[in-house]
Design goal:
254 residues; alpha+beta
Length: 254
């Protein structure tokens, strides 16, 4: 009997998990509460989709359990990521260590993910909300019942890929945290890890949309707290882009 996997969330991780499960012979169902899968993919990398980074080492991450990030990365690292997307037809491009599709189009990435999901026969339920998940004994092993507003799904395994609460308009509204909590997981209050920098004055509105290669420094009381270099994006509220996100994670108490 084929293993039944229900994946909650049809974003980048959900679609990738669905492809992996289906390639290994499982019957996979994606439950997505938006009207289409992969909406947030279209906005990643300023619409170009930053697929991965060449440098992924322990000092790149901040975590309460320092070894955890590298445990995850060793399971599916840069080489595996590049091979996965190449296998789907995406030719990667290296831009200062950041990897994008050669087309610079996030839509191309979403297209190949959706095409592979369809080719593999993955079931996709759209505009479908999960109400609760309950473990249930069945056939000598623990399985799950996933209650949705479109019916009940039986599963041998459930993958919770609902995202965070960073972008409600694209589906990441935090609803996954409640589901995880009901299953017994301890949920730490989510806080933004990388943010843009809001600046005072009206000057930025006149320059909104400009992108340029630049160095960014974060100073406090004459002390250099962080620095990075990359594509800087000027917006109507201030500064954005990868180097800004990088310095925004600086901990001033260290």
């Amino acid at each position: 009997m084929r293993k039944r996997i229900v994946i909650i969330g049809g974003g980048a991780s959900g679609l990738t998990a669905a492809i992996g499960g289906a390639r290994n012979g499982a019957h996979v169902t994606i439950v997505e509460h938006m009207d289409r899968v992969g909406k947030k993919i279209l906005s990643t990398g300023n619409g170009r989709c930053n697929l991965t980074n060449l440098r992924m080492e322990a000092d790149c991450y901040r975590c309460g359990r320092k070894e955890f990030p590298m445990e995850v990365i060793r399971g599916f690292g840069v080489d595996e990521t590049l091979a996965f997307f190449k296998g789907l037809g995406i030719e990667p491009k290296d831009r200062n260590g950041y990897i994008y599709p050669n087309s610079d189009q996030a839509s191309a990435v979403l297209d190949v993910l959706r095409s592979e999901v369809e080719r593999l026969g993955v079931a996709v339920l759209l505009s479908c909300r999960v109400e609760k998940i309950e473990p249930a004994a069945g056939g000598g092993h623990v399985c799950y019942k996933v209650y949705t507003d479109q019916g009940i799904l039986d599963a041998d395994a459930v993958i919770l890929a609902a995202g965070s609460k960073a972008a409600p308009s694209t589906g990441s509204d935090g609803s996954g945290y409640e589901l995880a909590g009901r299953l017994g997981h301890r949920v730490i209050k989510p806080l933004p890890a990388l943010v843009q920098l809001r600046c005072q004055g009206n000057l930025y509105r006149q320059m909104a949309g400009i992108r340029t290669e630049a160095g960014v420094k974060l100073m406090a009381a004459g002390e250099l707290l962080a620095r990075d270099r990359g594509e800087l994006q000027l917006t109507d509220y201030g500064l954005s882009g990868i180097p800004v996100f990088q310095v925004s994670q600086c901990d001033p108490n260290k």
